[in-house]
Every structure is written in structure tokens, then in C-alpha cells.
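User: Hey, quick favor. My workstation is busy. Could you predict this chain's structure for me?
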Amino acid sequence: MFAGKDRKHRRKARIVIPTAAVALVVGVAGAFLLAPAQATEPGPGPASTRAAGPTRAELTARVAGAVKAGAVDVSASRKAALSATTGTVKGKVDPKIIGGVTSPITSAPWMAQLWYDDDKGTNTTADDDSFFCGGTVVSPSKIVTAAHCVADTNWSKFGTILVGTSQLPTLNADKTVNLHGGSPVGVWRQWRHASYSSSKIDNDVAVLTLETPVRVKPLPVTTSADTASYKAGTQAKVYGWGRTTSTTQDISETLRTATLPVNSDTTCTSAYGRDFIKGHMVCAGTPATGSDTGTVSACNGDSGGPLVVAGKLVGVVSWGVEDCVEAGAYSVFAKASTYAGQINAHLNDANLSADARADLFARTSGGTAYEYDSKGTTFAARKSLAGTLAGGWGGYNVVLQSDLNRDDYNDLVVRSTAGTVYWVHPNLTTGKLIRTQLFTGWKTRVAIIAPGDVTGDALPDLLSVDTAGALYLYPGKGNGTFGTRATLGKSGWTQYNSVVGHGDFNNDGFADLIVKAKTKTVYLYPGTGSATKPFGSRVQLRTGWTYNKLITTGDVTGDGIADLLARDTGGVLWLYKGTGKATSGIWADRIKIGTGWSQYNLFG
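Assistant: No problem, here it is.
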């Protein structure tokens, strides 16, 4: 990407649609693994049941294998799929970057290298699948990249994420690999957009969840309401290690950056016709000149990296023309604002069973607690949580699921009957639970909510309502502690007998609140992402609701939109699947989960 000293790959081109990354200057030096906390108690959920991830030696070996294979572009098979044209575009669709200057990792600490190496278990290299992409740390345990870097792969088994270095790995004389200070991290699970099209390179976004969180300053994802970042002429930055010239397959050994002006949809459509999909894509840069001279463009090796405007991720490097410099061509990115809701859903998807669906905690009046793992629109047989918390579960009257330290392991916020609020979180090494005191004197708080991030800083927050009807915000710091509380409303919130929320109900990328008035009317308070005014005006959703319990644990169905569970007076539990609409159509027709749920007096 951009001119400079390059490293030649030693294997067939893998044209993995390398992506260009946009830069956000953040004063954080390097990256290192987050050390696990100390453990005290055995705990439920993924911390005690999840299989151990790959060792550092295994991760390093994967990088070495990819480097030895010359995994710079994408494989021939991947190239065929990603080079298909769908309309009037000239030449083959094929992503890349040319032009720019070197950049220290301190200027873009959220930049990640994605190395993939699968030799297929054969003695020939002909079927090897080894490639390199860029990515962006958007949360301590989350990487946003391009879907074409994730499709038809198993990152958990064959991939390594490298953070904290501006240099690509190199081979030592003894064939070992030098990571140049970078920290290798494994991938726990992967998600790519369900409607990703390899032929159109459409919906080209993906999220990788890391085995171990990294401590770098994340790059925030832009919001769904962001239009200013896409105004024609807006200056955006792109970063990457991709090709620096159209004449060889060499990629840059050192991270580089360039500034590209954002173009209007009209300009992009004029250049690419039907290949440019308005609303899903954005193109940037000045028209390529037909040669390296005067061209600044993303190129092979940059795929999956970020396009940055005003300190936000606004695009993901997706595609361009073959060899990057064809006269009149522009770099094309997946438009992050369009996918903000789905991306953010995967930044706050920690759950009891460690999959992509939110689960349910339920406790009987006798104090016995159970875990119900979601199967999509039903729940698996309950699992007893007896003995998982010292002293048992009978001494609490609030249990909320969250991930306060953004390590992607499910945490609980609980309130004791004495009014003390605790953070219950797992130790990643021992699988035991730690109970950390957060607040005291909350016995009379009529509602406590763990909605996720409501201030727009990618860190989970906490809300509470007191007996006077005041609503308070406690901004999370991402480490289980909170900043000074802010008063969002001095009165009026006691008109609601239910104030709940966990996740994004209207698919705009912001955490919302669902409330039920004593008049049996249900409302949505849509999130805004603003620290000073995190919720917009309420929207009426339903009337006549007689449910005695509303439960929000997140995305139960796994489609990226928060859902609602409701128990009626007969003890029947219902699932209201989210549609993403901010109107009375916010939920699809309810689905009956089952009867007998009156036995529980606490959900979370």
C-alpha cells in the first residue's frame, strides 16, 4: 500500500481482497494482552467450560506458515470469486492500495494484521489457503474486517491476529519468525454478514472475536445516523501494509497511511455502474492516473482495514480495479454506517453459553438458579447453577447480564437484598468467579439496567432509577468501574413499572430502553450515542400489555437485533423477536416459549 520498501511474496497470488485501513491518531503505544484477574469462586458459563485456545507457539507457527507461503494476496480460487464483474465496471474487481507515507503503530494502535494459513494437510502447496488481511480493533476482544477475509475460512483453527506492531513478520535465518514486538492472539469465533455476496463483494463486513482481549485504544465504529463523514470532499485516512506499486506483488514491510477524499455516490456510480451499490458502499480517492505516479489507492494486502474520518471507523477496505491504478478508478469500502447496528451487536454479545445468542438466567422463589441456553426461538433444557456462587443465589433481588470489562466473557451485575451492588465476573485462567463491590445503599433503587453502551464510547454503562423517579447514568470505564454519575431525568420515571434494556432494538447501533407504564402502555426510548443526552423522545410501541415481567438479555435469536421476553399472568413465557423497526412493528408476532415460568421470581 503506498510507495516504499516492499516484501515479495513467494507464492501464487491470493488476492484476498486486501483492504486499506483508515487512520485514527491515538496516543497509545503498542499493544499487549490483558492480564486476567484473580479468581475466588467456581463459576458458571463459558469461563469454566470453554476449551483452551491455541498457545502462543501455535499462533506464531501459523504466522510463520503464512509468511513462508508468501500469503500476501488471496488464493486463485478466492480471486476468481472476488474478481467477478456484475455490471459495467472495467476490468476485474480486485482490491488494493498505492501511495502514501510510513506510519508508526502509535498513530494507529488499533491496526491489526490478520494471518491465515491452512495447508489442507497435504504434501503439496497447490491447495494451500494462506493469506493476509488488515483489520481494526473496535473493542478489546473484537476485530472488524472484510467479509471476504472471513468467508469459507476457520479462523479459530488456522488464523492468528497480530497487534501492536507497525512491521510485518519476517523469517529469521533459522526459519523461525520474528514478530517485531507484535502480540499474537487467537480467534474464538467469527461472524460475517449473512447476505455477503462474493460475486458482488456486497455486505463486505465481518467481526472476529478474540480468544484473549488486547489492551489497545479501540477505534469507535461510526453511527447509523452519520452522514457528515460521507459528504463529498471529506478527508479520510486509510492505513495498511498492502502493495505499494502496480508493477509487482510486493507489499510494504511497514504500516503506511494516505489521505483520500470521500466521493459522492454519483461519482462512484459513474465510475463503476451497477458494481457500486449505493448505501452499502462508499468510494474514496482522486481518480487513478493509469500508473503509480499520481495515484493514491488501496491495493492488495489492505483488505479489511479501516477508512477513518474524525476518529471513527466509517469504511472497511473492500475492492478496487485490478492492479489498482486503472485510469479513473477509485478505492471502494463497505459503508460502516449501514452496518453499525449489526457490528455493534457483536461488540456486546457475551452470553452464558458463549455462542452468538443471548441466554436466560432464572431463579426460583426458593433460591435455586438455572441457566437457559438459547437455541434461537426456543431454549435448551435448564442447567442448575447451584454452587456456582458462594452463599448461593437466594440473597439477591437483581441479576443482570453484561460484559463490563469487554473481555467477551459473560459477567453479572447483582444486587443483594441489603442493597449492595456487585460485579460478578470470571477469571479467565481458573474459570472461577470474582465478586467485586460496585455500589452500596441501592436497596431502594426501583430499577437497575445494564443496557450496554449508551454514551457512544464503546464501553458498557449502567443506569438506575430511584424512588423519586430520577434516572441516573453511570458511565462505564471498561474495567468494571464507573465514572461520576449523571442525572438524565430528575423525576417521572416511577410512572413505569418496568424499565429494561440490553442491546439495540431498532438496529441503529445504539443501546435502547424498553419501558412499560402503569397504564399498560409500552414505549421505546431510542439510544442516541450521546453522553449528554443518551436517549431520544419515547416512541409508543404497544398498549394493553398485562405482562408481569419484561426481560431483556440481548439478541436471543442471533440475528444481531435485541429481542424481548415477556411472562404473562398465567406463567407463560413469550419471545418477541426484534425486527429493527423503531415503531409499533418493532417486534414480530410473539412466539410461545412454554408454561410454568411462574416458579421463577428473578430473571436476568
